[in-house]
Write a structure and sequence with these properties.
6-stranded antiparallel sheet; single chain; alpha+beta; about 525 residues; about 10% strand
Length: about 525
Amino acid sequence: MGEEARSSLRKPLENAIDVELRRVERSIARAWVVLAAAATVLSLVVAATIARRLGLVMAAINAGLTVVFVGAARWVDRRPVDRRTPLVVVAFEGAMPWVFFVALAFTQGAPYALASWIPPLVFAALVVAWVARLRPWPPVVVSIASGVAYLAAYFVFVRPRVPLGPTHLILYDPPMQISRAFSLVLGGVMGAFVARQLRRAIARADSVVRSEELFGKYRIVRKLGAGASGSVHEALYCPEGGFERRVAIKQLHAALASDEALVRAFRAEAELGARLAHPNVITIHDFGRHADTFFLAMEFVDGVSLARIALRSQREGLALPTDIVAHVLRCVLRGLEHAHAARVLHRDVCPQNVLISRAGEVKLGDFGIARVLDASGEGASTRTIAGHEAYMAPEQIEGGTLAKATDLFALGVIGWELLTGRRLFVRDNPAATLLAVTRAPVAAVSMIRPELGPAWDDFISRALERPIDRRFGSARAMLDALDAFEPVHSETDAALGALAVRFASGEDTSKRLVDDEATMREAPPRDASIET
């Protein structure tokens, strides 16, 4: 098999590394040209000022090497990417330091040559250069050639010039030089080992990165949180073309990918979410299968959940201003109005599913248990109880017909809690919480915050009416009622964004999500069945 055929069978990563390392080779070749030329000039200075004979010999050697390196640089620029460096070229480099060794012995004497740091330094530079190219075999060839050349130079040119008598040292004898040659070979072997390990490390890193890619379009950046059925990650959408966009990836646990009901629910979430395109609803971008599981790609919101803001405000004794509460309710109502118009009933409106960006944007997400409204756009039926129990409407608990007002009841609970800084229906266990939703008395918000006027009492009380026909009939009706007594403030989104930045800064996201869920009393894993 020819060289071209062998190259075509190599791994893409290997080919990519070789292409990129061509730039390194060009840089190294040019660096050798510069170093050889500089050494020529320096040798001439030495000849003029310190040692004429030594300087002239070194200048001649360096001038010759400059010519050789110029030719090598041109050869590197012109040769094919997949063509390897010939063995003879590497062997020449290995012998090069010992040309200086012989020159030093002739001009300055054997003791000077044996003690000089110039040949070992050139040898070390050669090994480092080949390690930088991530080529394992050239350092070994360089070291073997150096060891052979060193011993040949020693026995043929240097040993006969070693002085005898009182000035003779054991360091000049053959055993010591043989050990030096062995150390040269050992250094090359170590360089080859390092080059191979670096190349393997790059391959392992590439494997890890690719294991976090989905269909070559998404690259996982970090995990944001995990639950009973899956995990959520921040990722980069990296299509062909060179641009990137941050997205959130919701991924089922691989062990649950065989659960047909759960997969149907996951697919239904994507299908229902794909119907919606609104500034206050998290956009669904993609749905697919990767390896042994399924994923959902959606808009990434850089911020915190409303649950986080409510929790931290409560801990710090901070009463949220009414304009901020009204802004949050308005945004969620606009998102719900759009969803209801598309015949999508969210069924799980809660603070955990409302995200606040650092710019103050309010986004409603997680349509995992949403239902399709009937043809009239008014009703939906279900045979399951699912959602965050503290925000369920009575008809969800009692198995009645659901309607748009079902989502509005949950929003009324959110409004009550944001205004008062307290939990409304949460009790010691889920059963007690569900009972409180259907029977517990609801205090007027002005009883807890006297500065709130009767308009807020009437607004929240109507949203929390237990008979569904006594609540607001639509998100638009509830929005109009809110606008009638609470004016819109232009700076509210900036103030809300500042809260998101304040409560998100300096904390790990995954820990933050776990903390929010535990404190806000998440419901147990939700039913995954889908009815339309």
